[in-house]
Design goal:
single chain, 281 residues, alpha/beta, D-Maltodextrin-Binding Protein, domain 2, 2 domains, 3-stranded parallel β-sheet, 13 strands, 22% strand
């Protein structure tokens, strides 16, 4: 009897995972659905062969492997689902994807619709401008036209920054980063607002990247996290477990170097983020 009770106790964690929720669905199907962006380098983009790549994409791959091991699956297939900035939150909310692997900022308003993992990165929003522009700081946006994607936190932060500084810039709404960059190239707008690291990477990837630069000043703080469906604490625990292990082991340094190394070393704030989230098992 004692041996039977011990055996049952050992099976409880896996049995709980197999009961219901996302982990149960993953175990049954042998597949995890990961959403990715196609043009948010170096975090989430597609390479020449159309394959998802980037910092956030690799973090999601690490999470998927950790879940495979926890569920004791011989193999776990990844179904990559392309998303746009406009539909990424809804894709998580309606169950189209299990995890959104992009550049989503964790906000309390968004947390009413989706859940979030441990933070994965911290950045600031700023503006990409032409290299010959005289704009250096936020105050220089006065009277200018600035493009931004409306479904991003950058859009709201930009409006608040302009209002706080009593600036009269015209905010031009665009449907994608590509449209924002195209308008900047053509001179239809004076700048394109987004997160600093994304802007630098987009500028470098542009054929005329040498003609772009970013302002010296940020107008917001953007803490990134992986967006998850609400109401599934067991699934979030496994996602957080994988990320904490990555931070605790120091393996996150190699991930950072692979995707963001060319842009410089981790900031003091990002280093602190990794350290504080190295949660013990």
């Amino acid at each position: 009897m004692t041996r039977l009770l011990i055996a049952l106790a050992l099976c409880l964690p896996l049995a709980a995972k197999a009961g219901d929720g996302i982990l149960a669905a993953i175990q049954k199907s042998g597949t995890i659905r990961l959403g990715h962006l196609q043009s948010a380098p170096p975090f989430s983009f597609v390479d020449g062969a159309g394959q998802p790549q980037g910092y956030s994409v690799e973090l999601c791959k690490r999470v998927a492997e950790n879940i495979r091991q926890e569920l004791k699956l011989g193999d776990l297939k990844i179904a990559w689902i392309p998303l746009q900035l406009q539909d990424r939150i809804e894709a998580v909310r309606n169950g189209k994807v299990d995890i959104e692997c992009g550049i989503t900022t964790w906000t309390l308003t968004r947390q009413q619709e989706v859940d979030f993992s441990l933070m994965t990165f911290v950045d600031g929003a700023t503006v990409l401008v032409n290299g010959n522009s005289e704009m250096l700081r936020i105050a220089d946006l006065n009277g200018k036209k600035i493009a931004v994607v409306p479904t991003t936190t950058t859009a709201g932060s930009l409006q608040r920054a302009l209002k706080a500084r009593m600036l009269t810039a015209e905010v031009v709404l665009v449907s994608s980063p590509e449209e924002g960059i195209a308008k900047l190239k053509s001179g239809a707008v004076d700048g394109y607002a987004s997160d600093r690291v994304v802007l630098i990477s987009l500028g470098l990837q542009s054929k005329t990247g040498s003609n772009f630069r970013v302002l010296d000043e940020d107008f917001s703080v953007e803490p990134y996290a992986l967006a998850l469906p609400r109401g599934d604490p067991d699934f979030r625990l496994e996602v957080d477990r994988a990320l904490a292990k990555l931070y605790r082991s120091g393996e996150i340094e190699a991930v950072f170097d692979r995707w963001l190394g060319p842009l410089g070393r981790p900031s003091t704030l990002l280093t602190a983020l990794y350290y504080l989230q190295s949660l013990p098992e």
